[in-house]
Known about the structure:
The protein is α/β, with parallel strands linked by helices. The chain is about 40% helix and about 10% strand.
Amino acid sequence: MVDSSKGNIFLIWGGAGWVAGHLKELLTKQGETVHSTTVRMENRESVLAELERVKPTHVLNCAGCTGRPNVDWCEDNKEATVRSNVIGTLNLTDCCFLKNIHITVFATGCIYAYDDKHPIGGPGYVETDPANFAGSYYSATKSKVEEIMQTYSNCLILRLRMPVSDDLHPRSFVTKIAKYERVVDVPNSNTILHDLLPASILMAEHKEIGVYNFTNPGAISHNEVLALFKQYVRPSFTWKNFSLEEQSKILKAGRSNCELDTTKLVTKLKEYHFEVPEVHVAYANCFQRMAALGTS
């Protein structure tokens, strides 16, 4: 049994994952008590036993099924996707509720697509807008489970989009598009982990609940990202574009393209004197940190 006599105890679910690793490093540096687990979320008895063993004050749920090498996998493995993204996510949230534990769920904002009311360069989607993108089974499961999960009074839902780290980790959006033979060029909201993961810990500590678009303010296109990457990290880098129509011919599932409105997030974080940089500024900062580390 874990000693629960001192302050906050964080338990990271999906502990072997990329985002989970960043969170554990951050919490450790902050001097917090942090544990991680790879217990399957859908196994209710195992989940309850793990919660009883660790006795966390806060659960950070980074687990879920995104598919390997990408979300196309979910199209052919729908039962496994539901088991993790729907049954598992709800089970863990419910178990935390029963034990009076706050849970932060790292969810996705890839549940929207540009439309007539939300065109490129127009207003972004706010948290209360109904999901309108079901082009991938992955996104369909995520939007449906979010609707249900919002009813839990212990649950904070953070919608990440195209997350980026300060290295070239294989899961980072930049790493992915830098390796593609061709890329589309569409503005999107992005989540720079360096800027936003500290905010997630802050919000969890204050037991915030509800849904937040969890991205840097603004939208940035693929070409703008790669131009900054070329400027700061890899001067010899080149790339080619193709259209969304051409892209659709090589993908099994569609891809969400949208801008999320971050007014709610920015306003909340101001209460804690925390600021999130605009996405173009954030990328320039990210690539400068990357270059300083010798990454190329």
